[in-house]
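Re: that backbone. Tokens:
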């Protein structure tokens, strides 16, 4: 401009504005060129950010804002990417839900919270969740529950059920899916095995409360065993056999 260097111009900008060497560039045209260059730079930054990984509109927007592009430029880039279907929050939600269904251990509440944190709107979240049918939720909850059960072999059946329910709730499954999953999991009661578990805990409780008067010791042990989910007939058997 006026024979002085102003800023670098890309080949795309030359073509877009039909520029040529020696062409006179006035103030308004210079401003338009600058804005076009800024938009092109922001667009290329967004493309790089999208390479190899799905992103939400909010993620791309936050990335560009962090790079100090103004909101108007960011909005234009998002619109262009969406028009080219390079940015689609509904597809992002569906992809995330499919991944969680096949490789994850989380329920719908967890998925909803995750997508909200990514800035996905409710209608797009629902589009993804439509893939996660009630049948699929129950199937996954059952599989996850069975894995948890294997880690709880040393506790009572009731305690297993309580811990599995709580764990599944923490993972975002709803109550109805959990109820059905617990019915699907094999909790066959082996009274002999249950009593073996009770014995191990009961012996520790005898040592713990051994210094208490007999009545208090008996009450404490019974309460502790009952809280752990053991049946009262097994508790009474233990109390009787150990003359507590």
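Recovered sequence:
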């Amino acid at each position: 401009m006026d024979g002085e260097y102003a800023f670098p111009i890309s080949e795309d900008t030359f073509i877009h504005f039909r520029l040529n060497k020696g062409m006179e560039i006035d103030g308004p045209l210079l401003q338009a060129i600058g804005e076009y260059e800024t938009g092109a730079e922001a667009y290329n930054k967004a493309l790089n950010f999208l390479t190899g990984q799905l992103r939400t509109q909010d993620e791309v927007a936050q990335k560009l804002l962090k790079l100090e592009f103004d909101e108007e430029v960011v909005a234009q880039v998002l619109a262009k990417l969406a028009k080219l279907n390079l940015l689609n929050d509904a597809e992002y939600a569906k992809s995330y839900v499919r991944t969680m269904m096949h490789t994850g251990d989380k329920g719908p509440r967890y998925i909803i919270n995750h997508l909200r944190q990514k800035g996905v709107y409710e209608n797009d979240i629902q589009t993804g969740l439509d893939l996660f049918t009630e049948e699929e939720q129950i199937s996954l909850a059952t599989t996850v529950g069975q894995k948890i059960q294997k880690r709880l072999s040393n506790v009572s059946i009731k305690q297993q059920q309580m811990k599995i329910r709580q764990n599944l709730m923490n993972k975002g499954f709803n109550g109805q899916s959990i109820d059905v999953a617990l019915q699907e999991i094999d909790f066959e009661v082996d009274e002999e095995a249950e009593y073996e578990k009770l014995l191990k805990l009961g012996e520790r409780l005898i040592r713990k409360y051994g210094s208490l008067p007999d009545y208090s010791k008996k009450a404490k042990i019974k309460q502790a065993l009952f809280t752990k989910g053991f049946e009262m007939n097994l508790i009474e058997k233990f109390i009787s056999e150990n003359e507590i």
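The CA atoms of residues 148 and 164 lie 6 Å apart. The radius of gyration is 32 Å.
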